[in-house]
Amino acid sequence: MVDRDPGRAWSWSVISPIPRGKGGVYLATVVDCFSKMVVGFAMADHMRAGLVTGALRAAIERWHSVECHLSFGSWGAVHL
Question: What's the CATH number where 14 sits?
Answer without folding.
Answer: 3.30.160
